[in-house]
Design a protein that fits this description.
The complex is a heterodimer of chains A (256) and B (410). Chain A is α/β, with parallel strands linked by helices. Chain A is built from 10 helices and 10 strands. Chain A has a 6-stranded mixed β-sheet with strand order 6-7-8-3-9-10, sandwiched between helices. Chain B folds into 2 domains: 88 residues, no CATH class; 208 residues, no CATH class. A two-stranded antiparallel ribbon of chain B has the order 1-2. A two-stranded parallel ribbon of chain B has the order 3-4. Classes of the chains: A alpha/beta (256), B mainly alpha (410). The interface between A and B is large, with 42 and 31 residues.
Chain lengths: 256, 410
């Protein structure tokens, strides 16, 4: 069974059709890219999957179960996590606590135990700290653990955002323009990182990206959107040579 | 400059425990010799609050009051603290690290009892201080940690005050006064928390800053509602309570509040509260049930406001609806912002400072409400996060835990 199955997904903002008849089937372990010009509706698709918006029409199923209408935190707890196009770390909180917040759905101790600070709740908190440090170490950002998130360099903030998303124990990771604002060297690092994350955490990854170099090199399949509609789908090579895609990206007359 | 620098570093070299012992010694001395010393420096009687009230009555007493404070407080405290300094490391060695905080709490409690326990006015001021600490810390949970803006804290305080008073006056047998008092306070807290729940459910249904306007309205609704219930006195107020609030009760409840709210904000659930302040959508995406967390935080906050209300009613022995008006809510806001956002230590400091400031400025009457906001504005211009904003005293929140709410220990 497919991990994520989307069919006929359509969303209107007032009279504006942001996403139209979007279909997608994601199997376990796939790495798929979503590209398209600015305003094509890519981030809206992410917001629909994660429950931030409720779609006007269509079906979204996770493991065959419909998830439309669930609150975002429930969808996240079921294993769908994301990063944001503009970094949304908890900026006045330490890097360590940024990651620890993502353990929320894994809290076992009761409210009373939290209030009384019983040894069980303290133990649990220590376990969260240890797990967060392990993840931070894995991505080489443990040195920043006690730094406020806002004080980190841009590239490191992106890394921490991925670590934080992984702390929710996702099965499906949605990355919204992970390479935005990165230089070519940093993008190379990021590509290695994405491959590593997928293999290490047995993840399915769905990513939005503008950097063609990155998308073409790491994605197995690519979907192309323009004005809310899907205009092409296929392997990187197929997409690269699709006249409609070229038209969407380069304009009307295509001259080689 | 060099001299003040030197004095500062000298005073800082004396450990806090030595100061507490010094203050305790000073308080004992005052209890034994306060009256004769006061008369010998030319005061009519022993000053109740460092001579502030006496000097207010007549400025002539000011030099004598200063002399009294020097003789009775500053010099004995310093001398004993100095003498105790070499002993402190040995005392600390004997104590297990875990029992250190309880020892400090007990010493401070002893200090407050010895200094204030036999004196009506001091009992009043110290009890009010405890009540204000409870109000400020609980409001800080919502306004500081959660980043929402509640302006109706006094409304919930009023609910707690009336519920507790009705219970002790009409329901519980009077002979069981102190025995049933905690139960009455808890009932007041629970009803206040339920009122908080009623406010929180609609307020947090949608994202955005609706809480300020709703709490403003609720404060008025509660006040006007009580005014129109003739059975509990309406606008004439309610009385008949026994004087149950004293230094021990005020102290126990304020320490309990500080402890519980501190534990909460250090816990994973408390971190979720801070995450909401930082970025609600990101928090929700990171599996945090933001609506539940906001409602929970607001109810905890209202609960303690209710407890404070019960204590307040059994201290002043008379309450009326206008006691719990917007002015009282504003007082709590001032304490929170004075002390600093998202800081337990800040609220403690803010409440203590504010209580003393109110006593100090009492002769100005209504004009103190011109001066206090001005002082607040002036201070916030210099330190916009308040006295202790986003920071904690290390005795309240140990350094390694302080960062949990995005703050550093000091």
């Amino acid at each position: 069974m497919a991990l994520l199955q989307i069919s006929g997904l359509t969303h209107y903002f007032g009279g504006l059709r942001a996403v139209y008849d979007f279909d997608l089937t994601l199997d376990q372990g796939e790495l798929i890219g979503l590209i398209g010009p600015n305003g094509a509706g890519k981030t809206t698709v992410f917001n629909l999957i994660t429950g931030i918006y409720r779609p006007s029409e269509g079906v979204i199923q996770l493991d065959g179960q419909p998830i439309i209408g669930l609150q975002p935190h429930r969808i996240a707890a079921q294993g769908v996590c994301r990063t944001f196009q503009t970094i949304r770390l908890f900026s006045d909180v330490s890097v360590l606590d940024n990651v620890k917040i993502a353990f929320y759905s894994q809290i076992q101790s009761t409210l009373l135990e939290s209030l009384l600070r019983t040894s069980r709740s303290v133990q649990e908190d220590r376990a969260f700290t240890a797990e967060a440090m392990r993840l931070l170490e894995l991505f080489g950002v443990d040195g920043y653990a006690h730094e406020l998130a806002r004080n980190l360099p841009y590239g490191e903030q992106r890394r921490v955002e991925i670590v934080r998303a992984l702390a929710t124990k996702p099965r499906l990771l949605l990355l919204d323009e992970p390479a935005a604002g990165m230089n070519p060297g940093e993008i190379d690092h990021l590509m290695d990182l994405i491959h590593y994350v997928r293999d290490q955490f047995k993840l399915t990854i769905f990513l939005i990206e503008h950097q063609m170099r990155l998308v073409m090199r790491i994605c197995e399949r690519i979907k192309v959107m323009d004005f809310g509609a899907t205009i092409a789908e296929g392997t990187p090579d197929e997409v690269r040579n699709n006249p409609q895609v070229l038209k969407a990206y380069l304009g009307e007359e295509v001259e080689e | 400059m060099a001299l003040t620098q030197k004095l500062k570093s000298h005073l800082a070299s004396i450990p806090p425990l030595a100061y507490i012992l010094g203050l305790l010694a000073a308080a004992v001395t005052e209890r034994l010799a306060g009256e004769p010393v006061a008369v010998s420096v030319g005061l009519p009687s022993m000053p109740s609050l460092f001579g502030i009230t006496l000097s207010q009555r007549s400025p002539v007493f000011l030099p004598a009051a200063v002399a009294y404070d020097l003789l009775m407080y500053l010099i004995p405290t310093y001398v004993v603290a100095r003498l105790a300094t070499p002993l402190v490391p040995r005392i600390l060695e004997r104590l297990a690290k875990s029992s250190l905080r309880p020892v400090y709490v007990l010493l401070v409690f002893a200090l407050l009892l010895v200094w204030g326990g036999y004196h009506e006015y001091r009992i009043l001021v110290l009890s009010l201080m405890g009540i204000n600490v409870i109000l400020a810390v609980s409001l800080n949970l919502v306004n500081g940690y959660m980043g929402e803006f509640s302006v109706g804290h006094a409304g919930f305080m009023g609910v707690g005050a009336y519920v507790a008073s009705i219970l002790t006056v009409w329901v519980f047998p009077r002979s069981l006064g102190h025995l049933m008092f905690p139960l009455a306070l808890l009932a007041g807290g629970v009803v206040a928390a339920l009122a908080g729940l009623l406010v929180a459910i609609p307020s947090f249904k949608i994202r955005g800053d609706y809480l300020a306007i709703i709490t403003l309205a609720v404060n008025y609704i509660i006040k006007n509602g009580i005014e129109n219930i003739e059975k509990i006195g309406g606008s004439r107020g309610f009385m008949g309570m026994a004087k149950l609030t004293n230094i021990p009760w005020a102290f126990v409840w304020s320490v309990l509040t500080l402890w519980l709210i501190r534990n909460f904000v250090l816990s994973p659930r408390g971190r979720a509260v801070v995450a909401i302040r930082e970025d609600e959508i990101a928090a929700e995406t990171m599996t945090v049930d933001t609506r539940y967390t906001k409602i929970l935080g607001f109810c905890i906050s209202s609960f303690f406001a209710g407890i404070a209300g019960g204590l307040f009613a059994h201290l002043l022995l008379y309450i009326n609806p206008s006691t719990f008006s917007l002015l009282k809510s504003t007082e709590v806001l001032v304490m929170v912002y004075l002390g600093g956002m998202a800081s337990i230590s800040g609220s403690l400091l803010g409440a203590v400072t504010f209580t003393l400031l109110l006593e100090l400025l009492r002769p100005l009457e209504v004009w103190k409400w011109v001066l206090i906001p001005l002082l607040l504005v002036g201070m916030l211009l210099r330190r916009h996060a308040g006295l202790m904003g986003f920071r904690e005293f290390s005795f309240l929140v140990p350094r390694e835990e302080a960062e949990s709410h995005g703050s550093a220990s000091d």
